[in-house]
Design brief:
Monomer. The protein is α/β, with parallel strands linked by helices. The chain has 20 helices and 27 strands.
């Protein structure tokens, strides 16, 4: 199972510009082949003879490279940055050093990702470096493809043929950012609980990148053929080293079937009145979509849109929102040229399949509403939660729709900074079952990452439960019906997010400093607000969000600037850590409406007074030069 040179140069310092598509039948075959060991033709003596390649550990001198600070979800930069000499190597070695030699020696590590450009070269480099640092085995999803939630599931659930369990994972993804030779690449490390490395570890990694003098790589270890399922064995200074290429769909599908009532969802999909569309935006979700929706649940292949994973995501932006998922939005009756007969239910995923967007016929469900509705309906609709929810949590910028559900159901509730690792701590302590964030991330304690396909199956489960008595006759309860029933019961949180992408980093920092300075005099702030809009309530309090973790006591400061109004409205300003260059300013605007006669207004219309106040208060155009956001959600 060894390929001579398919992964690029040995050091990975150059990168061609060939874009690869992964046809669905090659992504995860449903019947895995017989496992082979080290079948490289020039060394194989017979079908039953195993010949191990022997490698040595090579020490390579290096020096620090600036700017290797991991953001909320790892290190993300342009491909041209990652392909600089020693760039990836430095970061990987700094990660190994942060974890300590004792944790790496004899370990089992997962190395896979969303299949974006440069992934195949990076996987070969990390395999060689893991071997040199004393790892015992590497698990790789076939073709190097594993969704971020599937990696978490594999770390938590998979047991190797020899009884081994994973100790951690390198996930190669830049999530919802574009891919290709001139676009983004990313890498992050997940711990033995399947969740992202906590700040204590990522801070150590960054400190190590600033002092690194050397890295270690296996010399004489050939590139492994990651397109063929099986185990390749090698021999090194620490003994045997294995690379296990496996069908990653199986573990994830098995986990989903243990959570949801697939039979109930099958009945919904079989109902003649029901139709749906799933758009993978040419990300890694496509590798799972056919297996789950078509093979397991009986949906038509025509329900799947853009479900062939591509290294450049088909030239698109794999971010499941109303701006970038144009084809799905049009098909669901929401675009400028909408379909005349949209499906009942639609959903989209991002590049690494941890995010989701949920749509009904001509109807958009905000991520903040989505997590609240899942929490409100989970116990009745999803077998995994039949004994009750332990608690719920949301990120600070997410609307307070979940808070109202938690209060009504008497559930533990937590508000955390942006970043899934904060939810992971709560889950590991048994305090949280369902959580979400406004940036299209929803999940539960089945893994330690957000999970896009899980969210889609959760919505399908709610639809199946609400329609269990009218699948053969009568009108179906729709996505829109479910959302409006929720608003009637719990009230509506009008909510929008303005993203200003690739803003000059200096200008973005000045804007944030201006907003912090304003907080010292709320009297002046309220005077300014009344000068802009007299119909907007006064600010009751303002701060920079700070979080003390109830589990480990760690404190996270400067997590976003908040203006909290007397009527429950909120303005939140954050600099996002998920871009690869420049800065992204995110502005969140929220207004709560309890009066059920007023919950049917257009969101942008209802929020326009607050939007006007936010733009004037922040001097957005003055600082950024932008007269409009890049994306409005």
């Amino acid at each position: 199972m060894v390929a001579g040179g398919g992964g690029g140069g040995f050091n990975g310092d150059t990168c061609g510009s060939r874009i690869i598509e992964y046809p669905p039948h090659q992504v995860f075959p449903y019947i895995s082949r017989h496992n082979h060991h080290s079948l490289f033709a020039n060394l194989t003596l017979s079908e039953n003879t195993q010949v191990m390649a022997t490698f040595k550990v090579k020490r390579v001198e290096s020096s620090p490279i600036e700017g290797q600070k991991p953001g909320t979800s790892g290190l993300r930069k342009k491909v041209k940055v990652f392909t600089q000499p020693h760039y990836l190597h430095n970061f990987v070695q700094s990660t190994f050093n942060a974890l300590s030699a004792e944790k790496i020696k004899g370990s089992t590590l997962v190395v896979s990702g969303d299949g974006r450009y440069y992934s195949k070269d990076a996987i070969q480099i990390i395999i060689k470096m893991a071997a040199a640092n004393g790892a015992r085995r590497i698990w790789v999803g076939q073709n190097g493809l594993l969704s971020t939630p599937a990696v978490s599931a594999v770390v938590r659930e998979r047991v190797g043929a020899d009884g081994s369990k994973a100790n951690g994972a390198f996930i190669l993804t830049a999530s919802h950012n574009p891919g290709g030779p001139n676009e983004d690449f990313g890498i992050k490390y997940n711990m033995e609980n399947g969740g992202p490395a906590p700040e204590g570890v990522t801070d150590k990694i960054f400190e190590n990148t600033k002092t690194i003098k050397e890295y270690f790589i296996a010399e004489g270890l050939p590139d492994v053929d990651i397109s063929a399922i099986g185990v390749s064995s090698f021999s090194g200074p620490d003994g045997q080293f294995d690379v296990d290429v496996f069908d990653a769909a199986s573990d994830y599908v098995k986990l989903m079937k243990s959570i949801f009532d697939f039979q109930a969802i099958q009945k919904l999909i079989a109902c003649p009145q029901f139709s749906f569309c799933y758009d993978a935006l040419h990300g890694v979700a496509g590798a799972y979509a056919s297996r789950i929706f078509v093979e397991e649940l009986g949906a038509k292949e025509s329900s799947l849109l853009n479900c062939v994973p591509k290294e450049d995501f088909g030239g698109g932006h794999p971010d499941p929102n109303l701006t970038y998922a144009k084809e799905l939005v049009a098909r669901m009756g929401l675009g400028k040229t909408p379909d005349s007969n949209p499906p009942e239910f639609g959903a989209a995923a991002d590049g690494d399949a941890d995010r989701n967007m949920v749509l009904g016929k001509r109807f958009f469900v905000t991520p903040s509403d989505s997590v609240a509705i899942i929490a409100a309906n989970a116990v009745q609709s999803i077998p995994y939660f039949s004994s009750g929810l332990k608690g719920v949590a949301r990120s600070m910028p997410t609307s307070a729709a979940l808070d109202v559900v938690a209060k009504s159901l008497n559930l533990k509730f937590f508000e955390v900074p942006t970043g899934w690792k904060f939810f992971g701590n709560l889950m590991d302590a048994g305090l949280c079952s369902v959580c979400g964030e406004e940036s299209f991330g929803t999940g539960s304690d089945h893994i330690r990452e957000k999970d896009g396909i899980w969210a889609v199956l959760a919505w399908m489960s709610i639809l199946a439960y609400k329609n269990k008595d009218n699948l053969t006759s009568g009108k179906l309860v729709t996505v829109e019906d479910i959302v409006k029933q929720h608003w009637a019961k719990f009230g509506r949180h009008y909510y929008t997010r303005y993203d200003y992408e690739n803003v000059d980093a200096g200008a973005a920092k000045e804007l944030m400093a201006h907003l912090v300075k304003l907080q010292s005099s709320l009297g002046e702030v309220n005077k300014l607000i009344k000068g802009v809009r007299s119909d907007v309530a006064n600010v009751a309090s303002a701060d920079e969000f700070e979080y003390k973790d109830p589990v480990d006591g760690s404190v996270s400061k400067n997590q976003g600037i908040r203006y909290l109004f007397e009527d429950g409205s909120r303005l939140v300003f954050r600099l996002s850590g998920t871009g690869s260059e420049g800065a992204t300013i995110r502005l969140y605007i929220e207004q709560y409406e309890k009066d059920s006669s007023k919950t049917g207004r257009d969101s942008q219309e209802a929020l326009s007074p607050l939007v006007e106040v936010a733009l004037k208060l922040s001097k957005m155009q003055e600082f950024t030069g932008r007269d409009a956001p890049t994306v409005i959600t």
